[in-house]
Design brief:
It contains 19 helices and 21 strands. An 8-stranded mixed beta sheet has the order 5-6-4-3-7-12-9-13. Helix 2 runs parallel beside helix 12. The protein starts with a helix and ends in a 13-residue tail after the last helix.
Length: 506
């Protein structure tokens, strides 16, 4: 059957239309992918991988000190070479997954395999291995010593440690177990990574300022790592000096090599002694004294046991460079790392820089339900009941009544009276006297329950819980800062002409 001319024309037109559509589709398809879908997916990818963010530390008052934006594209760009230095970090199974990840995301992300992590249980954290320091302790000792009960409980846990163990409830048990890690950790460190110049021992809540640390060790300390050297922040137990472990301590390669290679059974000896001592960092000092004949060289305040909110800013804590800080929670570690990353200068970081950038923008005249740590000099109601409530520390620092001014005698009565102690320390006639300002001894105060205490330094502190009865004025914690006095002292001191590097001393 022959189709009508009109029908043939429709078929031909339809075929041409189909071919045209196919050709057009094939021609435009790559462009759709490139400009529509490709652009869309690029925008989504860029959003999630964007390396530049608003700097959350940028505030009114520190605009000249930190950048407005935080470029995360190359976090190790200004990180120093750590050749010849090994970080040895100590943690515990009950805390490791709360504390170590932030360390690995910040400073330790720039350490190229220059660290070891020890705990009281072998664990794996992503690609990072955590070694069990206590596996080197004799099995008979672990069975005999009651402090190892927690160790056995951890080993028997078949799920996550947090599911088996209440970290807060077991805090004292974890502390008791902790002291047995130190000596086996020291021995295993040398066996696993011998031949380093310096070994920095720190804890999971210790922050290391690596740029300052490497600059000091390599250029400013004048120390030879082949010598027997033990550095840290000095503490005492029964008049026996040792380097506080939480602040971090440093051993030279020379002393670590001799201690481990020339003396056998260190772990066994000090495991037994640990049952009679409070702390593992003390055991380290005893071993170095007994076997190597060396004692700690004081390196405080550069090696420091405080953190930005608790450092006593002022004399001895201003022009000194900072090497370590302690008691840093995960958020605080991240904050200080962010500060280091966004500083507008790469000069040596001084303690005053922490104040200027992180603390000064938050300072104000008064805060309720706050403890700023004032406890250098105290003024307490003489009533026997008030004296009893005050507690031993405040009473020990109580100023004698015959040495008080009239204002000091009234200081315990209210926060307002307490504030006057600092406000009136320097008379109006001496307000322009630079020497008087530099010698100021009252920068802030704290009032609670008829106890007024003042401080010879200034620090931010931390919040206190509100009392159950908010109408009970005595139960409130009130802290205040004499901001004029702080500003006058800073102005009198002036700019730090050069870093006040600490010379380690016996």
């Amino acid at each position: 059957m022959i189709a009508a001319p009109s029908s043939r024309r429709l078929r031909i037109f339809g075929a041409i239309a189909v071919v045209t559509f196919i050709v057009t589709f094939l021609h435009l398809r790559p462009q759709w992918q490139q400009f529509e879908y490709g652009d869309y997916y690029d925008r989504v990818a860029n959003y999630f991988s964007r390396p530049v963010y608003d700097n959350t530390l940028y505030n009114q008052g520190n605009e000249q000190l930190v950048h407005k934006h935080y470029n995360t594209s190359d976090p190790c760009a200004r990180f120093p070479s750590t050749d010849g230095v090994l970080l040895v970090m100590k943690t515990g199974a009950t805390e490791a997954f709360d504390r170590i990840p932030t360390q690995l995301l910040t400073t330790m992300s720039c350490l190229p395999d220059n660290f070891l992590i020890f705990s009281d249980m072998e664990q794996q954290m992503g690609p990072y291995h955590i070694y069990d320091a206590l596996s080197a302790v004799d099995e008979a000792d672990r069975a005999r010593i009651g402090d190892f009960d927690l160790y056995r409980t951890q080993q028997e846990c078949i799920v996550s440690q947090q599911s088996c163990i209440d970290a807060k409830a077991q805090r004292q048990s974890a502390w008791n177990l902790d002291k047995y890690k130190f000596m086996p950790m020291i021995e295993e460190t040398w066996r696993m990574r011998p031949g380093q110049d310096w070994y920095i021992f720190a804890e999971a809540d210790t922050y290391v300022f690596w740029a300052n640390m490497m600059h000091w060790l390599k250029k400013k300390s004048g120390l030879n790592p082949r010598d027997k050297i033990y550095l840290g922040s000095r503490s005492f137990v029964n008049n026996r000096p040792f380097a506080h472990g939480g602040s971090g301590y440093i051993l030279s390669g020379g002393v670590l090599r001799h201690l481990v290679e020339k003396h056998d059974n260190l772990t066994r000896q000090y495991t037994d002694q640990g049952t009679r001592e409070c702390c593992g960092d003390l055991l380290v000092a005893l071993a170095l004294d007994e076997h190597e004949g060396i004692k700690i060289r004081q390196t405080w305040p550069m090696i420091n046991g405080e953190k930005p909110t608790t450092i006593p800013y002022g004399r001895n804590h201003w022009c000194e460079p900072i090497l370590t800080m302690h008691h840093m929670n995960a958020e605080e570690i991240s904050t200080v790392w962010q500060f280091e990353q966004t500083r507008k200068t790469d000069r040596v970081l001084l303690i005053k820089d922490l104040y200027d950038s992180l603390i000064a923008p938050k300072m104000q005249d008064i805060r309720e339900h706050w403890d700023n740590g004032s406890d250098d000099v105290c003024y307490i109601n003489r009533d026997p009941e008030a004296q009893e409530r005050a507690g031993g520390r405040a009473k020990d620092r109580q100023k004698k009544e015959d040495e008080m001014t009239d204002i000091e005698k009234e200081a315990w009565k209210s926060p307002e009276n307490c504030a006057k102690v600092c406000e009136t320390e320097i008379s109006d006639g001496d307000s322009g006297n630079k020497e008087k300002q530099m010698e100021r001894n009252c920068f802030q105060y704290r009032w609670h329950d008829e106890v007024c205490c003042t401080a010879k330094s200034f620090k931010l502190g931390e919040p206190k819980s509100k009392p159950s009865d908010e109408n009970d004025q005595k139960a409130k914690w009130t802290s205040g800062w004499y901001m004029k006095g702080i500003h006058d002292w800073i102005e009198a001191v002036g700019e730090c002409k050069k870093p006040a590097w600490k010379i380690p001393e016996l």
